[in-house]
Structures are given as structure tokens and as C-alpha cells.
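User: Please fill in residues for this 431-position structure.
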């Protein structure tokens, strides 16, 4: 009887699995078909005005589009970087207009809200639509429905349609500049350190800053180093200056930093060999190499198949000074003089130091602040004897006496070039 019972249960299990698979395969096939682009109109011109804002609200103000990007790494899709309410936005449709025949295609979007929302109701999202097979659309509109009129909808230019050779080796993405930012001296020092280390482009998502900082940004824009992306997120959402939701009625954390970082990766995917994700008060300092190019050549050789390199963050408190490099001409410039801060906090027991990244942007699908969420290839933690992040800011361990801090003068290896370059910038800006 026992054996007969076992046979019965086994046969029942096989039957259930068979029926489930028979139902699942057609369902998945239907799901794929439902996302295939469909022709709904023909022989007409594409309507709508091209969006010219960095952040564009869709009808209902529950979804916001930053920019669409062509992505053919798995299939031919348009991937829109956006911000959505994680519960209220259930469906969206991409409306592609194919010229010169004027056919309009509609494709149901897959809405993928990033997992690192940190409790906020709005989060970074990928809105992904299959493109028509016989068309390379230049623009797309986003609608809540697969039917209707798009003449009143904004249309967005699809970037990265054409790939080419890299124009730069390293692009630094800084997000987001807010709070009437006025740390002018440290910003200039960071820009000059980036250039010494091999950076050709710095992209800044700017919410607001001081008038003096605007003057500095204008100098670096005209020089060709800095690209400023306007980031008026507080015109659309109630933003928090914290990364974790505090039940305070805010909509999104840290001025939408994660969305900006994802946009920066895709924006530079076809023009930069590497993208560096860090803040304006952070510098990745190589310990074994003179610059980032030599460091990354070595790291890639030692770690084949790696697309994400993570560097450990170390705090150099801005309240602990060294008497060296007290340059009088800099004392009238607002901000921190990083050359005077060479004492770093020791590691804390049971606390993991956060990391920032240098990535191959063509291998990243989604990123958070301290790690990537989805990528092709491996992630590697770079040992501290190879490089560390010099992070000069307010102390995290403010009660520690000076003798408990670690004197680390790695930054001083660059002091001569840094001082000369900063003085040149200050004289040109006339600060």
C-alpha cells in the first residue's frame, strides 16, 4: 500500500508539473507578444513637441521621463530612464513614429522600478520598450494608453542611436549639486585633481548652487571640462536631503541621486571608456600607480571579465588640520583646503566602509550609489593598498582624539601640480 501511495503521489506531481508548464509557456509567449510593437496609424506626420527639459512630467504627475536611450545589448529596445511612483504607475506605452513612411507603432512598456528605493514612494525606473523591426526611430512619446492622439504629448529624442569611438577615457558623474552649494575651493581642487589623474569630462547634475559657484562652473564649462545637466527635481517632487525615507512626506531621496547616476551612465555610454561615480568631495587616489589610466590597465589585466571596480571610502575629517600648505591666497576663497586634511578615521568595528565605482558603462544595466544592481560581467573590490577614496567631509567619528586618527599623506604626492593648477584657475576666474 505504501509503495502504491508513493506511485500515486509521483504520478500526480508529474501531472501537475506538466499541466503547469503547458499553461506557463503559452502565457509567457502571450506576454512577449503583448510587448511587440503594433502599427496603429499610417501615412501621417509625427505630432508633438520635442521635450527640452531634463525632467518631464507625464500626465498625472506620477511618472517622469529623463531621457530615452537606444539599447541593443540583448534586443533592440528603447530604454527610458525615469522616475515613477512604485505602486501607482501600472502601465505605459511607447509610441514610435517611423519616418519617412509616417507609420505609428505602439509598444507596451516594461516598467522596472529599481530595487534601491530606500522606502521612498518614488524611485528610479527603467521604462523599456521593444522597437519596431524595420525602423530605427529617432523619437518616442510615452502614453498611458495604446490608443488616442499623441499630438499633445511631448516626444523625446532617443540618444545613443549611433555608436562611435570613445572621445574620452574617463568621465566623472557628480550628482546631485544642491543646498546652495558653495564649497568653492574644494570643488576646484577636486576638478584639478581629476584632471591630474586623467579625467577629461565631469558631468554635474545641478539643482542649485551659490552665485560664486556658478562663476566657477562657467569657467569649467568654457574650458570644456564640465557639462552641467539642469536638475530641477524639486519642481516636480518633494525631495529629501537624506537617503533613507523618514516618514516625513517626502517623495524621493537625496534629490533623485540614483536616477541621475543611471542617466549619467547611459548618457556617456558611447563616448567614454570608463565612468566614475563619486561625489564632489571624493577623489579616488591611486597608491601604486601615477594615474587612473595606469591603475585601470593593471586592474583589468588582473581581473578579466570585470566591468565594475569598487573603491573603499575613507573619511578625512575637515575639522582636523595639518599646518602644511596654509596658502594665504586661498584663505579668501570659501570652502575646504584638502591639502590640510591628511588624517583619516580608522575603520569602525562591525561597520563596512561604503564604496564608489569606476565602471565600464556599456556593461551596466542599473546602478545604485555604492554598487551596481544589474550588470554584465563581474564586480571587484579594489584592495586598499591599490587605491582608496579620499573623502574630506565632516567627521563620522567626531569624538576620536587626534592621536587615534591615521596620518595619510598620499594626497601630498600631487601637491606641486595641484597648487600650481589651482592658483592658475583662481587667477583666471579672478577669485
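Assistant: Residues filled in for all 431 positions:
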Amino acid at each position: 500500500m505504501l509503495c502504491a501511495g508513493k506511485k500515486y503521489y509521483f504520478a500526480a506531481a508529474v501531472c501537475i508539473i506538466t499541466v503547469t508548464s503547458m499553461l506557463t509557456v503559452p502565457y509567457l509567449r502571450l506576454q512577449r507578444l503583448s510587448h511587440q510593437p503594433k502599427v496603429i496609424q499610417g501615412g501621417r506626420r509625427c505630432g508633438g513637441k520635442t521635450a527640452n527639459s531634463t525632467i518631464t512630467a507625464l500626465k498625472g504627475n506620477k511618472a517622469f521621463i529623463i531621457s530615452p536611450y537606444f539599447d541593443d545589448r540583448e534586443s533592440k529596445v528603447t530604454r527610458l530612464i525615469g522616475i515613477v511612483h512604485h505602486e501607482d504607475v501600472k502601465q505605459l506605452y511607447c509610441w514610435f513614429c517611423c519616418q519617412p513612411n509616417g507609420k505609428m507603432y505602439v509598444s507596451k512598456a516594461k516598467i522596472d522600478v529599481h530595487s534601491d528605493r530606500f522606502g521612498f514612494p518614488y524611485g528610479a525606473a527603467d521604462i523599456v520598450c521593444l522597437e519596431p523591426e524595420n525602423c530605427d526611430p529617432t523619437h518616442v512619446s510615452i502614453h498611458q494608453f495604446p490608443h488616442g492622439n499623441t499630438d499633445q504629448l511631448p516626444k523625446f529624442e532617443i540618444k545613443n542611436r549611433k555608436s562611435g569611438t570613445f572621445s574620452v577615457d574617463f568621465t566623472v558623474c557628480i550628482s546631485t549639486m544642491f543646498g546652495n552649494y558653495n564649497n568653492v575651493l574644494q570643488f576646484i581642487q577636486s576638478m584639478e585633481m581629476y584632471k591630474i589623474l586623467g579625467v577629461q569630462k565631469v558631468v554635474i547634475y545641478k539643482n542649485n548652487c551659490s552665485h560664486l559657484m556658478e562663476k566657477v562652473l562657467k569657467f569649467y564649462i568654457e574650458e570644456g571640462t564640465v557639462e552641467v545637466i539642469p536638475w530641477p527635481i524639486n519642481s516636480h517632487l518633494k525631495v529629501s536631503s537624506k537617503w533613507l525615507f523618514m516618514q516625513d512626506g517626502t517623495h524621493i531621496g537625496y534629490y533623485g541621486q540614483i536616477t541621475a547616476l543611471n542617466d549619467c551612465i547611459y548618457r556617456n555610454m558611447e563616448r567614454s571608456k570608463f565612468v566614475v561615480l563619486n561625489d564632489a568631495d571624493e577623489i579616488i587616489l591611486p597608491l601604486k600607480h601615477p594615474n587612473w589610466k595606469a591603475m585601470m590597465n593593471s586592474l583589468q589585466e588582473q581581473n578579466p571579465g570585470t566591468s565594475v571596480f569598487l573603491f573603499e571610502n575613507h573619511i578625512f575629517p575637515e575639522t582636523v588640520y595639518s599646518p602644511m600648505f596654509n596658502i594665504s591666497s586661498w584663505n579668501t576663497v570659501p570652502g575646504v583646503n584638502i591639502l590640510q586634511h591628511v588624517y583619516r578615521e580608522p575603520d569602525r568595528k562591525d561597520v563596512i566602509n561604503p564604496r564608489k565605482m569606476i565602471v565600464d558603462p556599456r556593461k551596466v544595466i542599473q546602478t545604485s550609489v555604492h554598487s551596481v544592481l544589474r550588470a554584465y560581467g563581474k564586480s571587484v573590490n579594489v584592495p586598499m593598498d591599490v587605491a582608496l577614496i579620499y573623502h574630506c567631509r565632516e567627521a563620522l567619528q567626531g569624538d576620536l582624539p587626534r592621536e587615534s586618527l591615521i596620518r595619510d599623506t598620499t594626497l601630498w604626492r600631487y601637491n606641486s601640480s595641484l597648487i600650481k593648477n589651482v592658483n592658475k584657475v583662481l587667477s583666471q576666474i579672478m577669485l
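For context: The chain has two domains: 41-157, 168-429.
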